[in-house]
Amino acid sequence: LQNDHKALMKQVEEALHQLHAREKEKHAKDEAEALAEAMSQTQSLPQAFAKVNAVTPGSPANISGLQVDDEIVEFGSVNVNNFQNLQNIATVVQHSEGRPLSVTVLRSGKKVHVGLTPKRWAGKGLLGCNIIPLQR
């Protein structure tokens, strides 16, 4: 009886070793896939449609962290797919006065999210920055 128990325990131990070895391989493979996916995402940066070419100090745009040469990928509901001209952005700004807008920009090759609240301030306009369309 004791010999049967030893043999059975040995089988259980071997099966556990095999199970953990397979799990370790699977985990390593998953990590490699995740790394490859992360690398491919950094190469496929979203397309920008406009660029910030001036930011006035003390303005809502300046306070939110918008910077000169930021390329705009998303400005509220406006993105590369539905952008026709700067009037699209002006309309979003007017309708969002006093409410935060989600703005996504490309800054030195990285995607950056900025919370921008258009509002009246000492200068002209609701943002205090100048945006120009990108010619592609």
What layout of secondary structure does this protein have?
Elements: H1 2-43, E1 50-55, H2 60-64, E2 71-75, E3 78-79, H3 86-95, E4 101-107, E5 110-116, E6 129-133
Antiparallel strand pairs: 1-2, 1-6, 2-3, 2-4, 4-5
Low-pLDDT windows of residues = none
Please describe the biggest sheet, giving its number of strands, its sense, and whether it closes into a barrel: 6 strands, antiparallel
Task: Give the C-alpha Rg.
Answer: 27 Å
Task: Count every helix, treating DSSP H or I runs of 4 or more residues as helices.
Answer: 3
Order of helices and strands: HEHEEHEEE
Q: Termini separation (Å)?
A: 81 Å
The number of domains: 2
Label the structural class: alpha+beta
Large-scale geometry: rod-shaped
Keywords: Chaperone, Coiled coil
Family: Belongs to the proteasome subunit p27 family.
Protein name: 26S proteasome non-ATPase regulatory subunit 9
Pfam family, one: PDZ_6
